[in-house]
């Protein structure tokens, strides 16, 4: 978001840390520190977030992939390439999903009045368009891999014929994520830890010409990792 003290106007952006639009993926975001109030705008599919500290929300999950028609549906058919080449293999809509979240630390931050005013002015306060909740919560209702691929099996003929293959969401995968300060997982998430006992502080300051992050995160992280029973992660977070 703009600096503190900025007056609200309709042209203010949410200033997300990263914006991925109409990509079929894969798009890997690993070993980053996302500290803005909005970590990512994901009008896309095929993303993977691994080993990140994420202190901002995700917006436009499941949205923003049409051509802006005022009357009729206008999905953006976008090209995809032959693997590792530049030739176009075909065109396809963006189905959303195929998102993977592994071993991330989510920390809910207070939301500024400027951001809430922005959302209200644009009438985008819904969970999928202008979300304030840090975590994977915007992916509520997305299928897991078993649910999604069952629709393609020969012995599920009735389900297979009823599916909307050009617009249904792709599955979401997750594991090993940790949630602090009220950050929330999506409703189908497994193997995660919500810490409701400890409050995490994050302060970005400039010291001797360098930007330094002050946090108490490491006082509580090891205990959460132990509860997740993922010993392979210990070395990464130490």
Overall description:
The chain is an alpha/beta fold and 238 residues long. It is 14% helix and 26% strand. The protein has 5 helices and 16 strands. It has a 5-stranded parallel β-sheet, covered by helices on one side. The protein has a 4-stranded parallel β-sheet with strand order 2-5-10-12, with no helix packed on it. The protein has a 3-stranded parallel β-sheet with strand order 1-4-7, with no helix packed on it. A hairpin with a 2-residue loop joins strand 15 and strand 16. The radius of gyration is 19 Å and the shape is globular. Mean pLDDT is 83; it is low at 231-238.
Summarize this structure as a short list of keywords or feature phrases.
238 residues, alpha/beta, 5-stranded parallel beta sheet, 4-stranded parallel beta sheet, 14% helix, 26% strand, disordered C terminus
Helix content: 10-25%
Mean pLDDT: 83
Head-to-tail CA distance between termini: 31 Å
Sheet bearing the most strands, described? 5 strands, parallel
Radius of gyration: 19 Å
Order of helices and strands: EEEEEEEEEEEHHHEEEEEHH
Within the largest sheet, what's the order of strands?
A: 3-6-11-13-14
Structural class: alpha/beta
Query: How many strand segments?
Result: 16
Question: What's a quick, concise take on this entry?
Answer:
The chain is α/β, with parallel strands linked by helices. It is built from five helices and 16 strands.
Give the topology.
Elements: E1 18-21, E2 27-30, E3 33-34, E4 38-43, E5 47-50, E6 53-54, E7 57-59, E8 78-81, E9 88-92, E10 99-102, E11 105-107, H1 113-121, H2 145-150, H3 157-162, E12 172-175, E13 178-180, E14 193-195, E15 202-207, E16 210-215, H4 221-228, H5 234-237
Parallel strand pairs: 1-4, 2-5, 3-6, 4-7, 5-10, 6-11, 10-12, 11-13, 13-14
Antiparallel strand pairs: 8-9, 15-16
